[in-house]
Structure formats: C-alpha cells, structure tokens
C-alpha cells in the first residue's frame, strides 16, 4: 500500500459528455458510473465518475481500502487518489470481455483460475458481509415511489416484506458453513479484462469487494452470463456441465491444488441457493438505483428480472 494517495477538491460532470471529453479520450460502458481515460504519452490514467447517489449502495471508504489491499497483492491497478465524485487509478492493459467471449469455454479456465487466486491470497477476518450489505441496500429503499407507474409495477411484482426474503436465504446459507474468503462480488462481463498478449484475465472495479462466501462469488459470476444490456437473457447462462467443469477448475487452482469429487458435488448442490442470494442482492440494489440514479437505465425492470430469477433459483434449491 505504498502508492501515494491524494484527494482533489474537484467535481467532474456525470451527464455532460462534452465536459468529460475536454479532458479524456475514451469512454466505457457502465450502469453505475461513467469511466474514461486520459493519456499522458504512453501512460493511461482512468477517471471513474460516480453515479448520482451511488453512495446509497456503495461504501466509498471500503472501496478505497479494498482497492489498495488488492493492488498490494497484484489484483488491481494502482489507486492514485480521489476527487469529490470519483476515483483516479492506473490502467490494466487489455479489454473488457463481451458476452460471447465470456461464454467461450476457452475463457472459463482463466476466469476460474483468477477467482481461485483471489480467494486464496487475500486475507480476511472470516466474516461474510453479504447479508449486512443486502440489508443496508434495503434501508435505502422507500417502497413508496413518487411515480405512479413505477409504484404500480413494484406493487404488482414484488412482495411487501423483502426483509423476510433476506432472512429466508440467510438462515439456509449460514447453516451450510461454506468457506468465507475475500470476494469481488461483481464479476459481470464488463469487470473482466482480457490481455491478449499475455492470454490472461484480470478483474476491475472493486466497489463491492468484501469478505463473503466463495460460492457466492462463483454463483454471482454464473448469473452474469445473461448480460446487463436490455433484458438479461438467462437462457445464455452456463449449462449444468459447464458449471461443473468451472467449479472443477476453480478447485484445481485453489489453495489446496486438488479436486475432491465430494467437494464438487457439495458445491454444486448448494449453488442454486447462492445464485438465489446473488439475484436477491442485485434486485434490491436495483430498486434503490431506480429511485436515485440519473443514469439512463431501466433499473426497475432489471430489479424485477433479478427477483424472478431469485425465486426460480431458490425454488430449485428447495425442491431437492
């Protein structure tokens, strides 16, 4: 953590592309932040401009602490400083994957390996923060929408007591005593960078990185094969056999460097429950965003899509 970290008392525009382009060359996609790069000869510096009210779902202090820890262990680019509404960081060479690439089996081994390395090398206190974080989202959500159309949609598609859903999933997961490690917790396609020269992958954007169940990180990644542009298409998610092979590779590259068939079977049995937990986590997150974000994205419909998958995966687990 030796990199000098500075604060700049400046605020960059989130909504004006012209203002950003005056000081930046490239924009990237995002449904929470706007990201662009400034070039200085052969060096690239990334500016991540936070979305409006994202502090309601992202602990910015924890983000800085987690990012600097990850950089120390070689899992993240250097973090140079922050400004009033964003961060300044280094550049990891490579390009974010697209969904078709992520679904290519050639990438599965590399992604599984990098997740295993992350889980093996970063120390934690052994306490998962996932349900604490999910509840913190829920506290930021007001079930009474100002928009009548949104209110009607929410009332029709969501239960009155979301806290009960969290408790239901938590009670089952805690009993399983799955390993707790340091997790990325947001391994969607845009957060996986492929370096074609090294033929390796890295992860970016550690806004939600914290100690969690290892199987949550894997399950959450599996959910993200549906994509985030438009309506997620869950028919594009990995098949049963593909998930099995992924978990096999994850264990092969893990701290124990060995694969136990019984352990694979146990993880695979518990996987739908952790997929349900991931869907519930992001569904409640999206509900908060629907009431606060100024970014042009249909968060409410996305929240509904994730909640439907939460119900399906929970039923899949419970019916066994």
UniProtKB/TrEMBL annotation:
Q: Extract the coiled-coil ranges from the record.
A: none
Tell me the lineage of the source organism. Eukaryota, Metazoa, Ecdysozoa, Nematoda, Chromadorea
Name of protein: ethanolamine kinase
Q: Which InterPro entries match?
A: Kinase-like_dom_sf
- Highest rank taxon of the organism: Eukaryota
User: Which keywords accompany this UniProt record?
Assistant: Lipid biosynthesis, Lipid metabolism, Phospholipid biosynthesis, Phospholipid metabolism
Note the PANTHER family from the entry.
CHOLINE/ETHANOALAMINE KINASE, ETHANOLAMINE KINASE
One GO MF term, please?
ethanolamine kinase activity
- Output the Pfam families linked to this UniProt entry: Choline_kinase
The UniProt record lists the EC number as 2.7.1.82
What family name appears in the similarity comment? Belongs to the choline/ethanolamine kinase family.
């Amino acid at each position: 953590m030796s990199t000098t970290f500075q604060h700049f008392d400046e605020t960059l525009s989130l909504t004006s592309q012209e203002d950003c382009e005056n000081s930046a060359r490239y924009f990237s996609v995002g449904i929470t932040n706007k990201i662009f790069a400034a070039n200085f000869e052969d060096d690239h510096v990334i500016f991540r401009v936070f979305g409006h009210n994202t502090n309601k779902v992202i602990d910015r202090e924890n983000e800085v602490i987690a990012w600097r820890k990850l950089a120390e262990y070689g899992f993240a680019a250097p973090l140079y400083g922050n400004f009033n509404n964003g961060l300044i960081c280094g550049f990891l060479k490579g390009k974010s994957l697209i969904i078709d690439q992520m679904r290519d089996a050639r990438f599965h081994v590399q992604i599984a390996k990098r997740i295993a390395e992350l889980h093996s090398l970063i120390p934690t206190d052994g306490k998962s923060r996932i349900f604490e974080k999910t509840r913190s989202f829920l506290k930021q959500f007001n079930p009474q929408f100002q928009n009548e159309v949104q209110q009607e949609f929410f009332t029709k598609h969501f239960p009155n007591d979301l806290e009960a859903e969290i408790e239901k999933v938590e009670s089952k997961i805690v009993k399983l005593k799955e390993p707790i490690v340091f997790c990325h917790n947001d391994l969607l396609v845009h957060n996986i960078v492929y370096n074609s020269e090294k033929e390796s992958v890295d992860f970016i954007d550690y806004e939600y990185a914290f100690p969690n169940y290892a199987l949550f990180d894997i399950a959450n990644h599996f959910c993200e094969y549906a994509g985030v542009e438009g309506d997620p298409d869950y028919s594009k998610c990995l098949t049963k056999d593909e998930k099995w092979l992924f978990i096999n590779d994850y264990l092969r590259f893990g701290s124990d460097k060995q694969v136990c068939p019984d352990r694979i079977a146990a993880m695979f049995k518990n996987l739908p429950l952790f997929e349900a937990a991931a869907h519930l986590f992001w569904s409640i997150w999206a509900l908060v965003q629907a009431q606060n974000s100024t970014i042009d994205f249909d968060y409410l419909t996305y929240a509904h899509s994730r909640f439907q998958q939460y119900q399906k995966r929970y039923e899949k687990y419970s019916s066994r």
